[in-house]
Amino acid sequence: MRIDVLTLFPEMFPGYLGQSLLKRAIDNSLVQIQLHNIRDWARGKHQQVDDRPFGGGPGMVLRPEPVVECVEEVQQQGDQPGHLILLTPQGRRLDQPHVEQLAGKARLTLICGRYEGVDQRVIDLLRPEELSIGDYVLGGGEVAAMVVIDAVVRLVPGVLGDEESNRQDSFSGAERLLEFSQYTRPREYRGLKVPDVLVSGNHPDIARWREEQQRQRTRERRGDLLEGE
Ligand code: ADE
To answer: With 0-12 CB in 10 A as exposed, 13-18 as middle and 19+ as buried, what is 82?
Structure first.
């Protein structure tokens, strides 16, 4: 998979991209990430990428020309244009089924907004998918883009190494329940013991215990996930 990120702050990404899972995916050529600085497409001697909103109001708005022209040029690179996404709190809220869909694409092109937003003509001209990572407002789309990359890349075949492990994730598998509790050594810590069933070696019992935990947890914490049942 190829992911292009269009941002005014490409320097926010390298630390994140150096993290182990992603680094291995990049080193193994499973994922290719290209950063593009929208400012490189700005015109004029001041290379101004933003301006005050028409009609007044606080903050600055990203001008349409550098964003549109950056997208057009980047989309022409490679074999095929990427599925175009604008990170914005106005977008559809991301969830795991949608992450799974995005993981099936050969290429994604992510536009990170900043300031009070981007000029509406960017959206009208380019028709990106508008995507939010949750009902809160970030300072810009960069952290949201990292969230999308993080969630999508781990589903690209070969990245996790163990394809079973993402079927067991919360929100995943056929039922999309929360995950069960996990334990490791020691068998007892400060008087708290690992449940006997988990050390019983009885795999059908373990599977039943885990399923029951998943249902109970989901019922207690996230009844909304069971509503479709
Ligand atoms: N930019 C600012 N807030 C955002 C959010 N919640 N999701 C995606 N992009 C954003």
So the answer is: buried
Residue nearest to atom 4 of ligand 1 (CA): 89
Whole-angstrom CA distances from 170 to 15, 122, 154, 166, 214 are 27, 35, 14, 9, 9
Q: Which helix (H) or strand (E) holds 69?
A: helix 64-76
Q: How do residues 123-179 score in pLDDT, each as one tens digit?
A: 999 999 999 999 999 999 999 999 999 999 999 999 987 766 777 788 888 888 999
Q: Ligand 1 test: best mutation among 90, 135, 137, most atoms within 8 Å of CB?
A: 137
Task: Give the tokens for residue 112.
Answer: 């990170």
For a mutational test of ligand 1's pocket, the pick from 7, 87, 146, 147, i.e. the residue with the most ligand atoms closer than 8 A to its C-beta, is 87
User: Of 89, 107, 128, 142, which one is the catalytic site residue?
Assistant: 89
Buried b (16+ CB within 10 A) or exposed e, 88-125: bbebeebebebbeebbebebbbbbbbbbebbbeebbee
Longest dimension (CA), the chain: 71
In the reported structure, the alpha carbon of residue 89 is separated from the centroid of ligand 1 by a whole-number distance in angstroms of: 4
CA of 194 to the centre of ligand 1 (A): 40
Amino acid at site 183:
Y
178: tokens are: 């929360």
- Estimate the share of the chain in helix, then strand, then coil, as percent rounded to the nearest 5: 40, 20, 40
The pTM assigned to this predicted structure is: 0.94
